[in-house]
Every structure is written in structure tokens, then in C-alpha cells.
């Protein structure tokens, strides 16, 4: 960690160093509650479930084994140690109305004067933890003196170690985008930065790039069908991806409807039991990935959600784009389109791996595109090496600073 924790001289906001450490009593309370939480009785559905294929959800066998491992073998202190091997910070970001958001982030700051600021943003049910493997690659490849980038992996407002959204007013992706832009400006990157995001992080990246001049580029794409698509330009591999997208819209987005229409109810349900969160979130780490991650990695994310009471605080965005009559995804909103350079890393097991033709027809200035043969929704976690290589090639393509 030594050498990567020097905050840039241009920073003009309060930034405190942070160490992740859950008190022993909270850890014991969690173990007690987990032990007392009952598994559902065996049913036809959970005995024939296959979360990987989207069939009925999580299985009784998986839940039983996962609970046993979580209770008797899982080591939370190990993920704390891994997390704390990177510089952690909490920035005090003042909003336009004077409200202060405490925003957690992990960073590798460079000592190079011309280092490129990179903002990495997760989604649901992710966290900054999914970027730690990429950051490990960065620090193994570059010393603080050689690192070409300032890399920042943020915890979005409402997620894990950051402040939640306000209790007295609505809050949406435009609000997240504003706070993220203020964070980057406050860290001294007002002359320009690049943002990368997955899931809700991708939506936020679209809004940031389409709203703020400081964000020069957007390494994130999703979308809705544009007009005048040339079907002959859509490859067979992309057509298979579109089949996956249609399946998700037909049977895979029930969770999003629940988040969007009954957020208070599902918030109480999942806040009451770690086993409930294991089922609700563990299903997604199985179904939305190409290869199911190791159980330990899945439990790292769910345990962090549990200790930070993240779930009820982090689903507010779903009211914005997951229900009929809502505003819809930012990627389909022309108000955010501009001529800034865009990169798109395509992964076959993404939830909605849209074809390249769609992206170009939506008016994006697509300057980098790479179609990967494997990988899913949690690309930063599943394919850290490929994501790092794509980002570096994108930066070489656009040059820096971008005019």
C-alpha cells in the first residue's frame, strides 16, 4: 500500500483514511442470527432449482451447503485484510443544498503529474470489492511512480460503506452522478477523468458523461433497441446475446419489479435475516455470471451488505427505471448523448449484451469495441485482466488529455 495513498495536491475536500473493521460483537451477533435462521422446507421447486439456468432460483442443496460454510468455515477477517491492503478513504462531499455525503472509496493514487483519473463504479448487488482484483493487477504492474492512472473504486451512495440517500426527498441516478462528479472534482480531477461502470454504475456513467464536462469519456454501454438497425450487421454471437436479453426481460427481472414497486417491503424482508440475503443475492451471482464465482467471493459481498445494512438503502434507483411508466434506462435517453469517446467491452453472459450496431445507431462515438468469448454481468470481478487491458487500450486510442 505504501506510496499509493498520497492524495493529489489539487484535492480540495476533506478526505479521511479508512480501515474496514467490524467489531467482534457484531460478528458474533451475525453468527448467532445465521445459526438460528431456518432453511425453507424441501419443495419440488427448490429440489429441482438451477439458478445458473434461471430455473426456479436457488436450490435447497446450495443454500444448505452455503449456510454451513458461512457459519463454520467462512473467514470475514480475511476479506477485511484484503480490503485494507489497499488505501481506503472516506470523502466528505457537499451537495448543492449543503448536505454532506460521506463517500467511501478505494484508490491507488499515482505520483505522475499526468496520470489519468479513472472512476470505477459498481452496481447491484455489487460493491467496491469486485474491483479489488483489478487494483491488485495495477499495483503489481506499476509502482506509484510509474502508475499511469489514479484509480478510484467508489461505494455508491446507499451502498455498503457510503452514506445513504436522503430520508426526506427522492434520489436517483442523476443525484448519484452529481455526487460522483463532485467527488472527482474535489479530489483534484476537475480538468478531466474517465468513468467506468457496470449495472447501475453503467447507468450512472452514462449520466455523468452526458451531463458534466469534467467527465471526458465513458467506458460503459447498455441500451434499448434504436431505430433503423441494420440487422445484417448483427453477428450470430450477438444474436445469442439478444436471446439472453429477451429471456432476462421475460423471466429474469422479477427482483427488479419488486425493488421498484415494493422497496420498503423487500427492504424489511431482507434486513431481517442473513439467510434471506444469501438466497436473494446468491441467486444473482450464480445466474448472472459466466462461471459461478467461488462461494467465498459470493459470501464476501453478501456479508459486507449485511454488516453495512446496505440492502434497504441501495435499491432506490429501481423505482426510476424498472417499472412501467418510469423514466427508463439512461442509455435510452437522448438527453445524455454527446460526441464524447465511448468504449464497449462485450461479454456473452451479460444480462443484456446489446449488439455493436445498436450502440452505433444510438449516436455514440464508439472508438473502442472488443467482443470477449467469456464473461458475464460482473465483468470487473470475473475478467479483471481483460478489463484492465481494455481500459488501457481505450486510453491509448483516445489519447490524454482528451480535448
TrEMBL record:
Residue span(s) of domain Epoxide hydrolase N-terminal: 16-130
Residues at the catalytic site: 199, 318, 377
UniProt cross-references to SUPFAM superfamilies, sorted A to Z: alpha/beta-Hydrolases
Keywords: Hydrolase
UniProt-recorded Gene Ontology molecular function terms: epoxide hydrolase activity
One Pfam family, short name: EHN
Family assignment from sequence similarity: Belongs to the peptidase S33 family.
Protein name, per record: Epoxide hydrolase N-terminal domain-containing protein
